[in-house]
Amino acid sequence: MRIIDRYICRQVLSHALLGLAVFTFVFFVPQLVQLMDIVVRHSGAAWQIAELFFSTFPGVLSFTLPVAVLVGVLIGLGRMSADSELIAMNAAGMGLRRLLVPIGAVALVAFGLTLSMTLWLAPASLRNLRTLEDRLRTSQASFQVQPRVFDERFPRLVLYIQNVSAAATHWQGVFLAESDAGGGVSRLTLAEEAIVITDREQGKLELHLRNGSSHEFSVSDPDSYGISAFGERDFSVAVGAVGRKFAAAPPSNAELSFRALMKQNGPKWRDARVELHRRLAFPVACLVFALIALPLGSRPRRGGRSVGFLIALVLVCGYYIIFIVGAGLARDGSLPAWLGIWAANIATAIAGLALLPSVERMPGEGRLLQFVNAVADRSHWRPWQTRNSSAEAALSPESSGEQLRIRVPSRSSAATVASATESESEEYGGDADPRDRRSGERMLPRRRKRGGFPQFLDFYVLRNFFFYFVLLLVGFVLLFEAFTFFELLDDIARHRTDIIDVMNYFRFLACYLAYQLAPLACLIAALVTLGVMAKNNEIVAFKAAGISLYRIALPLLLAGLAVAASLIAFDAPYLPYANQRQDALRNIIKGRPALTYLQPRQQWILGAGSKVYNYQFFDPDRSLFGGLNVFELDPETFAVRRRVYAERAHWEPRQKAWILESGWVRDFQNNQVIRYVPFPVLELSELDEPPSYFNREVRQSYQMNWWALRQYIGDLSKAGFDVERLSVQLHKKIAFPLIAPIMILIAVPFSILVGTRGAVGGLALGIGLAIVYWAAAALFEAMGAVGQLPPIWAGWAPDAIFFFLGLYFFLKMPT
Q1: What residues contact residue 563 under an 8 Å CB cut-off, 6+ apart?
Q2: Can you give the pLDDT at residue 374?
Q3: DSSP code per residue over 144-162
């Protein structure tokens, strides 16, 4: 390969790797919290955790590799065109069609990598990921058991732990309730403490109980009651059954091998053919993206890399919109499977072939290319066209509507003029008019505070910042939604989901994604804005005019605070509703039963005074219990002091007490029954929890605003539920939006390090900083969820760390 070919390959490959890192990171962020939670809780080997991380990448890379080729060619050739390197190559006798050789080589390498991902690595990694999750779920069963939480994941068994050691091998206050076939409690085992041993091969937890008792009772024979005390006893809890539920589920088309898809001839053959063509169409997308990016990227235009990134986002969005529509028509049978999946590639290839002859033309030739260039170069939002002119206008006094008239002595030097101008600016706040050239009289100007706000500089910086912010945010949201659509394609086809439900799901999902990705867009937009200004020497011009970097950063910091306030305001009234709707629509797409958040069935609740309530039925409208059991425990020995059973119980609002019907009361002392009283009707004053205490909403933290989440945590903590994770989320409701101005605070000094790399350097640096932040935030959140950190530390630690780092570098930067 010739030297010039290697040079072009390096230019394209470097920007392609940057685009690959950007888009892969955007798709990987939502999985960081889950993976960090496993890292914090894991009891397996380090290689298992590493394998879990690597198993998530092939499916993402098969989607982002074609996008990386498009970004690499557009930005790489755009940079060479902006620096007149392509013109020099053409003047030296090298036709621009010769660019097909190095770019084709890069595209072929990407084609081979993507083909290996779609045909082999991605399906194998998905199967391996399911197996790893099952294995880690079994090995981490003791870590997943939370204190003061009724764990109902085990078949016909409810487990409650009063306290758990940090190593999760020593439990204190163990409550084990076994149910019969009818759902009633048949055996109750309590122990003061337990030693936990995980049997990974058998999929069990071996509990070595100490100082406890066992209670046996039959609903059909209330007079018969057995109780036995023990000093030590072994108890096995099967956890493999939970994992086998997942293993029993049929594999999706994405998990099937290429050969298995070829053999599909049953009722799902059409879905299999769509998946088959998808695995072949994505690798070919690398070639067609390179074909259309060559004529678009080689045209000389202002903006270089910035325009290249913008065109890449537009092309990617257009490609995947065509792909999504074609895939939907192919699954419905309206189009053949091959045509629906390959329509996007065919359309892109036709456009690339139509634009290819324009490579050898002079700029401005070709109507189609003129239209593309007009869209890219003549937009009203084009900060790249006002680089130097805006900087000069910002320094010009005429921009403020005032005239600068300087009387220059005939024999004075330029230094004398500069010093005179500087002294007048300092004395009169930068807006003074020195003596008139003709009259020699001094004009008294209007005094204005030096560095007032806002100025033309502020509008210039904010315009560029919000342009990049909106561009990045919209691009990230659209790309992530496209990736999510591919994940749900099988479910949409399998359950014949209405297209309106699918569109509404992505509409509500866009709200959630915009909230999550706004700080990332702020960080990169600030880095790109200041990086481009530094590259064009605008920062130097402002500093030479006496404007410090602190003053330049002021509008960006205020913009970050505005974004944070907008996120907090957006989270209060609308975002919880949007998250509930998108969860409900996702359940419809997945074929799951609709979840109710208003009247869930909570069969185990911890009451006041060490009481445990268990019931088979609860009607909140009539305040009626069915099959009610109440256990009063000794908080020191964790032994049963009293047990109350009633077939029915209803709330009497006048007496503010529960009226029990057809039941009995047993009192215990030293693990022996000392009193047994059956009753037809009974009122117990100690059962004073009202019906509203049992009528709780089961929600996720993102489905509530700050006030609702705070009240929800208070209600759950009173009922004995674990609220560690929810408490962390409560602090993150405020801490997460405030990371936007903190990210900008970090971006200001780091943008100076970008130097001459401009927008691409800012993008690369922003992705690196964002990876560090999101990994740290996910780690702290997981540590707070398991009680290794206080919730306030887990929620605010990432903000505090990055704030002090940003403040340190901000104050140390040369201004």
Answers
A1: 469, 518, 519, 522, 737, 740, 741
A2: 58
A3: HPPTT--B--STTEEEEEE
